[in-house]
Design goal:
The chain is α+β, with helices and mostly antiparallel strands. The chain is about 40% helix and about 25% strand.
Length: about 170
């Protein structure tokens, strides 16, 4: 896809969202149900993913770890965003590799130490590019990727989050 093809796809959407801001607000959903053992089956729309305990918390390593899935979502979103921004800017990427890594202290999630935090303490997203773009173009590409990547921005600026009980049907 080139910049003109991307603009052809996105310009009607952008025009609509400028004229009808409420049309741009959509609700994404995810669903799952309990699986065998200590697991949860996630309905992705593309495939069924079974998430389970990380080996550091007693899992076998055969099921997907939700922490890994969070990092994978970051890589996926940043990769798509990077590709779209490069396309829009006319920057040719011969190849790109993205890696996310995050630091967890499992004492927190296992309740071993009540002062140990639960969740990632730090997440690092690394991008390796094969391109002839200038340093200035690369800096712009990375800045705009960070700015427009939904998962990156959500992790950087957490939304209001709550847990509630839904009555059984």
């Amino acid at each position: 896809m080139n910049a003109d093809e991307l603009r052809h796809l996105q310009n009607p959407l952008k025009d609509r969202y400028r004229q009808q801001p409420e049309a741009a607000l959509i609700t994404l959903r995810a669903a799952g149900s309990l699986g065998e053992g200590v697991s949860c089956k996630i309905e992705t729309g593309k495939a069924l993913v079974e998430a389970g305990l990380h080996p550091a918390t007693g899992g076998t390593g055969l099921a997907a770890c939700s922490g890994d899935m969070l990092l994978e979502a970051l890589v996926a979103c940043a990769g798509v965003t990077l590709n779209a921004v490069a396309t829009a800017l006319g920057i040719t990427l011969k190849d790109a590799r993205l890696e996310a890594e995050g630091d967890l202290d499992f004492r927190g999630t296992l309740g071993v130490d009540k002062t140990a935090p639960v969740g990632f303490q730090a997440i690092r997203l690394k991008v390796q590019l094969d391109t002839d773009a200038t340093d200035e173009e690369i800096a712009t590409l990375l800045r705009l990727t960070e700015r427009y990547c939904v998962v990156f921005q959500t992790l950087s600026h957490p939304p209001t989050l709550n847990l509630s009980r839904k009555p059984a049907q």
